[in-house]
């Protein structure tokens, strides 16, 4: 098998797993890694490097951190790497002068079964919307984001109580295998792209926009399944939250984790309950059970430890 020179572009831990997998193949040569510039983070506002940068430095890979992807110096340096293929995983939107550069094209790994869940948060939205399965897709990048011809797709099952953190790990592993498989297809001249339009049905496309803090507020006036899906689709990050009222009269923001549905019906009384497995919070039909709680300014804790130091009168419904 002939060798292939690749430039890899990515930022978070999810991308690191794919890059690490590519490095295991003897015919793949990573000639450059592109990642985001360092940014201040945390209370001390210390400069923080991306997970991809740390991995690249540990493995002595050539690293570029452009601020502007159209910068002439960056484009020149990227050209000089003379890569056959670019691979993009959880990075920024590329200008055509970049993605159109390599002879074999630029491919992207997306954590959904395209054309569904195009956008920045596909893993979260698949769970929030109660999907029973999702997956990963590799495709050739084109002008419109997440719309290029599909090379390969693989699926995973989403179980009833699976959190976005658990699904993230499954898709990260599946994504590494799928990306390597896709590169091998390209190396063997066997990567036939499928127009996403051929996969469209009469069903409406479901988007996956970026999630902000205000989007994470829980609406307990919905049925328990909807609320549970919402909570686990934001668990462990950024976390589904509500306003709680303590017996002291204080109002506090609280996040719920490790939730599950119950078959305990909500009747005329909508007071909070608890059992041997968690706090029970009334929804429109049944109670939601939350096993882990985090109050603003505090660490996440088991519900027993939480109740030992706090008494909740009610949540904002």
- Number of strand segments: 16
What's the alpha carbon Rg, rounded to whole Å? 23 Å
Q: What name does CATH use for the topology of the largest domain?
A: Rossmann fold
Helix content: 10-25%
* Biggest sheet architecture: 7 strands, mixed
Element order: H for helix, E for strand: EHEEEHEHEHEHEEHHEEEEEEHE
Figure out the total of helices.
Answer: 8
Please report the distance between the alpha carbons of the first and last residues: 61 Å
Helix/sheet category: alpha+beta
Strand percentage: 25-35%
Strand order of the largest sheet: 5-2-1-6-7-8-9
In short:
This protein has 317 residues and is an alpha+beta fold. Helix 1 (13-23) runs parallel beside helix 6. 25% of the residues lie in helices and 30% in strands.
Fold topology:
Layout: E1 4-10, H1 13-23, E2 28-34, E3 39-41, E4 46-48, H2 51-58, E5 63-64, H3 72-80, E6 85-89, H4 96-99, E7 106-110, H5 122-128, E8 133-140, E9 150-157, H6 164-187, H7 224-232, E10 240-246, E11 251-265, E12 273-275, E13 278-282, E14 286-295, E15 301-302, H8 303-309, E16 312-315
Parallel strand pairs: 1-2, 1-6, 2-5, 6-7
Antiparallel strand pairs: 3-4, 7-8, 8-9, 10-11, 10-16, 11-14, 12-13, 13-14, 14-15
């Amino acid at each position: 098998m002939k060798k292939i020179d690749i430039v890899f572009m990515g930022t978070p831990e999810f991308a690191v797993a794919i890059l690490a997998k590519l490095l295991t193949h003897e015919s793949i040569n990573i000639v450059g890694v592109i990642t985001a510039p360092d940014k201040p983070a945390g209370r001390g506002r210390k400069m923080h490097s991306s997970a991809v940068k740390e991995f690249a430095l540990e493995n002595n890979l050539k690293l570029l951190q452009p601020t502007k992807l159209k910068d002439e110096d960056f484009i020149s340096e990227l050209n000089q790497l003379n890569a056959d293929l670019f691979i993009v995983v959880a990075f920024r939107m590329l200008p055509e002068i970049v993605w159109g550069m390599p002879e074999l094209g630029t491919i992207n790994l997306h954590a959904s079964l395209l054309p569904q869940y195009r956008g920045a948060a596909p893993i979260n939205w698949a769970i929030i919307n109660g999907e029973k399965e999702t997956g990963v897709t590799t495709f050739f990048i084109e002008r419109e984001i997440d719309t290029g011809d599909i090379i390969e797709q693989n699926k995973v099952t989403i179980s009833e109580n699976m959190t976005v953190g658990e699904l993230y790990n499954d898709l990260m592993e599946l994504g590494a295998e799928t990306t390597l498989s896709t590169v091998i297809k390209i190396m063997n001249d066997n990567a036939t792209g499928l127009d996403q339009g051929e996969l469209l049905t009469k069903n409406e496309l479901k988007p996956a926009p970026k999630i902000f803090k205000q989007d994470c507020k829980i609406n307990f006036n919905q049925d328990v399944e909807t609320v549970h899906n919402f909570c686990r689709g934001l668990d462990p990050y950024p976390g589904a939250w509500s306003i709680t009222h303590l017996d002291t009269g204080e109002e506090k923001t609280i996040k719920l984790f490790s939730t599950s549905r119950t078959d305990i019906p909500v009747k005329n009384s909508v007071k909070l309950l608890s059992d041997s497995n968690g706090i029970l919070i009334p929804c429109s039909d049944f109670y939601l059970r939350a096993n882990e709680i985090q109050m603003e300014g505090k660490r996440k804790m088991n519900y027993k430890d939480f109740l030992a130091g706090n008494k909740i009168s009610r949540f904002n419904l």
